[in-house]
What does this fold into?
Amino acid sequence: MKSQASDIDAPVLPEQPHRPHVGARTERYPDGVHIASHWHDEDQLVYVSTGLMAIHTSHGVWVASPGRAFLIPAGVKHEHRTYGNTLLHLFNSAGPGLVARGLAGPEVVAVDALLHEVLKAVTDPALSEEEVAHLECVLNDRVRRTPVTGLRLPQPNDPRLREACRLVQDDLGDVYTLPRLARSVHVSERTLARLFKAEFGQTYPQWRTRARLFASMVRLAEGHTVTQVAQECGWSTPSAFIDTFRRIMGQTPGAFKAADSTDW
It folds into this structure.
């Protein structure tokens, strides 16, 4: 079953290329909403407390799940796609908190217990401007110290690499070896291995693992079982999937699914 975070074929919200300052707010989206390409005047923090969201730019795709947030620099064009019922806490800031990180593109950061509560509080519409200003100071301080986490799939530039990535992502259950993939795109194994390292800074197996995890998070958010996801995304056994997911994402697929329904 094909279901890729890199595909944007969902219902599209009305296009608004430039979105002016909108302050702090909470938004709820059903599964499969596509928010068309746009940009903001200020840095934006988008906390995903339920569901899953992917952000697409010309440089790649980032995904955030419960317990993680996007940092999106001002002026960066991006579009969103939701998977599962998704609850977002959004905050736009012209202050130094996000800018101080020197971001050239989006990042996904971990959200600890304090940052979680601050983000929920700062998006409360009942707060006064003074209360929001106090919380923004705390928010900016915490964001500057928040580690980068989550997944990013870079956008391939070379047409041969682009075709290789497409073949793998179209059917992750069909496990391509590097020699077989090289033959499929009519290049040598050495050339293809060099392209992965040159463009992504990763080996082919490293990139393939990220592509599998990326797709597995989407499927889990869409309600698939852990066993189904392991099979569809190319793991030899559910236990191998669970071990890889826990090692890279810091939680089991089961814990991820449980967090996915919180607060909706």
Summary: The two ends are 27 Å apart (CA to CA).
